[in-house]
Amino acid sequence: MHPVKLAVFVACFILWVHNAGWVQVDIRKVRIPPGIWTQLAFFGGIAGLLAMLLVPMFWLGLLLFAAIYGSCIISYVVTRNKRVAPSDTVLTMAHLGRIGKKRESGGELSGKDRVRIKDAHGKNPPWPNDPEQHAGYQALQDLLFDAIWRRTSDVRMDLAPNQPVTVVYKIDGVDRAREPIPAELGPLVFIHLKRIAGQNTDEKRKPQVGKFKATIGAGGKGDKTVEVEVKSAGSTQGERITFRMHSDESKFQIGDIGLLKDQLDKFVEHKAAKGVVLVTSPKSSGLTSTLYAMLRAHDAYMQNIHALEVVKLMDIENVTQHVFDSQGGTITFGKRLRSIIRTDPDVTMAGDLPDNETAQLIAQTGKSGKRIYAGFVSKDVFSALGTYIQAVGDPALAAAGLLLITNQRLVRLLCTHCRKAYRPDPAILKKGNLPQGEERPFYRPPNPNEVEVDKKGNPIICAVCQGSGYLGRTGVFETLFVDEAIRSMIAKGVPLATIKAEVRKKGMLFLQETALRKVYDGVTSIAEVLRVTKSESDKPAAPRPSAAPAQ
Predict the structure, then answer these.
(1) Segment 101-116, tens digit of pLDDT
(2) Which domain CATH number covers 181?
(3) Residue at 379 is within a domain
(4) Segment (H or E) for 512
(5) Could you tell me the pLDDT band of residue 247, with boundaries at 50, 70 and 90?
(6) When comparing pLDDT for 5 and 99, which is higher?
(7) Mean pLDDT of all residues in the chain?
(8) Which helix (H) or strand (E) holds 526?
(9) Nearest one of 411, 360, 397 to 533, comparing CA atoms
(10) How would residue 538 be classed by pLDDT, with cut points 50, 70 and 90?
(11) Distance CA 463, CA 418 (A)
(12) Burial code of 221-236, b = ≥16 C-beta within 10 A, e = fewer?
């Protein structure tokens, strides 16, 4: 026994007790399954302490304690840091920086580094010196950090005189209200947001558009950068600002968009075929992202690829993207597309089908031996086929180069950290043509009665999905690959109902069936499938293409 050695042993013992208690509390906050980590923290410390007592050389025992127990704690820290926001990580450079800032500021953490902003001119906007303006900019920083961390795609803010600013997020396609911004800070947030987006801060009525970039994270691989597109305009209540966030995560490849394996394999098999691919969906269902992913499936270095779009969502590497401008109504979408096709591209994408002229040009291009994608709004593949045939005006021409028709919806993915398992109703398995008798569980998000609470009765919110039960979205697809038999039926003007019955005999899965496959695989829920695949008969039909020029 030696006083120094005893003091070191007691210090290691206290460290173990403290860390074991911290792990037990922390796993509840970050929603990590408790079994393995609590045992690892407890028994790892016991093993390390026994090594200190039993190894004849004390300092060698101390090294063994550090190796055994340190590896246990570091393993847990690495795991939990992947599940929390960058501002909540521990034992990282960002954590040490936060501790240092607390000491420098007398315990108050500066918010200046929450979001790193590059304004419309690519510069870092300075923080205001005026206390009121500083508070408004801090509120904007908090808003941007919260929106990015929660994976928000769109934000809508309404400013009315002397009223709190209402804020609505769109997360995974669903609107979620955020806590309002206080009335005294609302106008300041609007001014700062317009300033960094390059807009006129004095203009409160006319529509304005601007952009800037925002980054959160500790300055490493875990950073998340988004490009924020800001739109402002006057409203009946006062002023409204909406902004959309685009990140590199949305640059999907063809294997990322949610096609089932057999659908993906068949698309890859037909990737080199010449002809027309119709890509359709209802509004706000990922149509443009799917078109972009399909273009990325082609070798942009070896092929000449052009795209014509009404609005460009993002840049596609090595693809020539044209944004349609009617020039006061003197040029139609079809005429602009024709001028692009005359340059003889290998692959062409038309992001809209506004009139008969465009549809006929697409059909002629596919028939002539070129690959062309056309995107437009439709509720299913058969409605899309009917719209296309009517717009072309000649069933034989429409059928000649037709390769594939897709229709899609976006479903939210269940959070794997808080989803709940249950046994499905056999009737659902039968209805969805799913395998029966495998005793495979279905999953759903937790309901309010299943949320754990802490010692004070406050709900413990899942840190991964922020309590929504879902994390991200994926596509579910209805695909109709047109073979010679179906092409012949289309050319002869056979009714769509007959064509639908024929492809059904050949094993085509309808939209809800492909969605149920994802339920069967545990990636989404029955409630989510019903939400996105419900009948749209009560919704107004989209206008059919006509010969009128696009304005």
Answers:
(1) 555 544 443 445 688 9
(2) 3.30.450.90
(3) yes
(4) helix 511-520
(5) confident
(6) 5
(7) 85
(8) helix 526-533
(9) 411
(10) very low
(11) 10
(12) eeebbbebbbbbeeee
Question: Do 213 and 186 lie in a common domain?
Answer: yes
Cα separation of 102 and 226, whole Å? 28
Domain of residue 168 covers 116-248
The answer to whether residues 180 and 161 belong to one domain is yes
In a domain, 177, yes or no: yes
Q: CB within 8 A of 127, min separation 6: which ones?
A: 112, 134, 137
pLDDT band at 377; cut points 50, 70, 90? very high
User: What SS3 string covers 440-457?
Assistant: CCEEECCCHHHCCECCCC
CA distance 190 to 139: 10
CA distance 499 to 485: 10
Structural domain includes residue 428 = no
Residue 529 CB-half CA count within 13 A: 23
**Which of residues 66, 83, 100 is at a domain's end?**
83
Q: Which helix (DSSP H) or strand (DSSP E) does residue 156 occupy?
A: strand 152-159
Tokens found for residue 339:
């001028």
Under 8 Å CB-to-CB from 25, ≥6 apart: which residues?
A: none
For the record, the structure tokens of 327 come out as 């020039």
278: β partners? 374, 405
Tokens 């060698």: give the residue: 60
The verdict on 386 and 322 lying in the same domain is yes
Domain boundary among 220, 248, 276: 248
Per-residue three-class SS string for 78-100: HHHHCCCCHHHCCCCHHHHHHHH
Q: CA-to-CA distance for 434 and 442, rounded, in angstroms?
A: 12
How many Cβ atoms are within 10 Å of 120's Cβ, its own excluded?
16
Q: Are residues 369 and 500 in the same domain?
A: yes
Q: Are 463 and 31 in contact (CB under 8 A)?
A: yes
Residue 378 backbone dihedrals phi, psi, to 5 degrees: -160, 155
Could you give the CA distance from residue 113 to residue 95 in angstroms, rounded to a whole number?
13
Phi-psi region of 119 (alpha: psi -120 to 50; beta: other; left: phi over 0): beta
Q: What is the pLDDT of residues 141-170, one digit of tens each?
A: 999 999 998 889 999 999 998 899 999 999
Domain count, the chain: 3
Whole-number Å distance between alpha carbons of 421 and 525: 10
Q: What is the CATH number of the domain that holds 282?
A: 3.40.50.300
Instruction: Assess whether 299 and 366 both reside in one domain.
Output: yes
Q: Whose CA is closest to 167, among 177, 175, 154, 182?
A: 177
Same domain, 25 and 166: no
The answer to whether residue 299 sits within a structural domain is yes
Which amino acid belongs to residue 416?
T
Output the pTM of the full model. Answer: 0.72
Residues 319 and 370 placed together within one structural domain of the fold: yes
- Here the tokens at position 365 are 């291009």
Which pLDDT belongs to residue 535? 52
Burial (CB count <10 Å: 0-12, 13-18, 19+), residue 543: exposed
**How wide is the angle at C-alpha 505 spanned by C-alphas 503 and 510, nearest 5°?**
55
Q: Are residues 178 and 233 in the same domain?
A: yes
Q: Can you give the pLDDT at residue 25? A: 78
The region, left, alpha or beta by phi > 0 then psi within -120 to 50, assigned to residue 258 is left
